DNA sequence: TTATAAAGTATTGTCGACAATACTGGAAAG
DNA sequence: CTTTCCAGTATTGTCGACAATACTTTATAA
């Protein structure tokens, strides 16, 4: 009998291993947005053949980090105001749905664990005021768990695997840390309370507002940057 | 100067060509649901190497038609009641959103074209009463156009490229033709009217109801089949 | 000088072969 | 007889090389 970790899969294939590295590089901006991707170059850089690299690129395309045109190659996605709007329009709907489902299907135990996670975030936040990385990670962590709580595999896949790397990319490269931290925590708290009360409708509404507020926050930043 | 068709891209790569064939085979059930996929076998069948085949398989996974496990291979997805519910939960949200956006962003010309398409469908429907293929194709066509009208690339990609093949697979393999045809056409009409009036909120609501009704219709069929 | 065309270069798409991993059947131990 | 272990087989993952396509540069003509 073999004991293995509950959720995470080993990801032993070298394509997987390289994928996460390129994902990080793109999200962090080490590979510049809009730049062309050279398969031979990347293959050399990571000491692998082009076959697993192309597998990785296919998955990068899947999460909208690169765009491929047949016979012409791949480019890192170009960030834009419009793109961000389009992204958040979908997040609003899908994460709202996730909340509604989470309120119905999350185990009481899961809710309690999420509760304690939030408390933990709060103390972290007090100590490291405004440190963007923790805010960012914590925020995503909360959203992740709620999405997982929906128990809908398609929804989980779409949000966690396909959309969230792009969300992170926008946040990182446009420097979204900001003073919204404490308010975001309060909103998380309210959402979780609604879920705890099994009030899906309210949780849905609150999540939509939460994301909408987040979007408006980013819009303001963008407007400032363009001045 | 080269003249090419307005939307469709040539898809010259052999991976693309094979992809559509396998997609069709899976959707139509020629390759049975739940069955294992053998790369060497399929490669021989289509007279290509394993490289482009694997590229095609990667995209099949993307649209949820197959599931791959590292080092173990791919299986055609197993249809289930739960899976259908999960699928329609997402469709409801996303296509509702698509309607709201379409009401805002569709060109008046596009709306008129869609109007005439509906009239066309109506006459077809009168002639070929209950012929499932036309109903199916027509229905999807309407939904497609509304989704395209949203002008949101992520939304379009998710619905048209990632979810709709699976929707078709459920319809085809579970034989969803049925007596809902005329009512569906009326609902399409009402949705389009709302879009024409630029009433996004109403279009959203009507589309959600439309899909919800469609889901309930399927649920009934399923319940009958299980007897 | 600008625009067009052709040759050359580089990159992507595809192939066949090898290596690593997973599945299958049978033998040995309990 | 059941279970566990092991060897054999088949399948997937990876590699390097070749073919097909796209991009670049140079030369030619208007």
Automatic annotation (TrEMBL), chains A, B:
Keywords: DNA-binding, Transcription, Transcription regulation. One of its GO terms (molecular function) is DNA binding. Pfam families: FCD, GntR. SMART domains: FCD (SM00895), HTH_GNTR (SM00345). The keyword Cell inner membrane does not apply. Signal peptide: none annotated. Gene3D superfamilies: GntR ligand-binding domain-like, Winged helix-like DNA-binding domain superfamily/Winged helix DNA-binding domain. Residues 12-79 form the HTH gntR-type domain. InterPro entries: GntR_C (IPR011711), TF_FadR/GntR_C (IPR008920), Tscrpt_reg_HTH_GntR (IPR000524), WH-like_DNA-bd_sf (IPR036388), WH_DNA-bd_sf (IPR036390). This is GntR family transcriptional regulator. It comes from Idiomarina baltica.
């Amino acid at each position: 009998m073999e004991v293995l970790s509950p959720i995470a899969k080993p990801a032993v294939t070298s394509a997987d291993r390289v994928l996460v590295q390129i994902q990080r590089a793109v999200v962090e901006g080490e590979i510049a947005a809009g730049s062309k991707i050279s398969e031979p170059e990347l293959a050399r850089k990571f000491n692998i053949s082009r076959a697993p690299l192309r597998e990785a690129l296919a998955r990068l395309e899947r999460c909208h980090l690169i765009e491929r045109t047949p016979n012409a190659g791949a480019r890192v996605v170009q960030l834009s105001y419009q793109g961000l709007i389009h992204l958040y329009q979908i997040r609003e709907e899908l994460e709202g749905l996730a909340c509604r489902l989470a309120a119905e299907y999350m185990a009481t135990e899961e809710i309690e664990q999420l509760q304690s996670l939030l408390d933990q975030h709060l103390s972290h936040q007090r100590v490291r005021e405004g440190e963007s990385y923790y805010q960012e990670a914590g925020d995503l962590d909360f959203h992740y768990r709620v999405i997982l709580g929906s128990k809908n595999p398609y929804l989980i896949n779409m949000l966690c695997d396909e959309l969230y790397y792009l969300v992170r990319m926008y946040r990182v490269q446009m420097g979204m840390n900001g003073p919204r931290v404490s308010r975001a925590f309060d909103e998380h708290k309210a959402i979780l309370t609604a879920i705890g009360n099994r009030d899906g409708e309210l949780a849905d509404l609150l999540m939509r507002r939460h994301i909408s507020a987040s979007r408006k926050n980013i819009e303001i930043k963008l407007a400032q940057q363009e001045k």
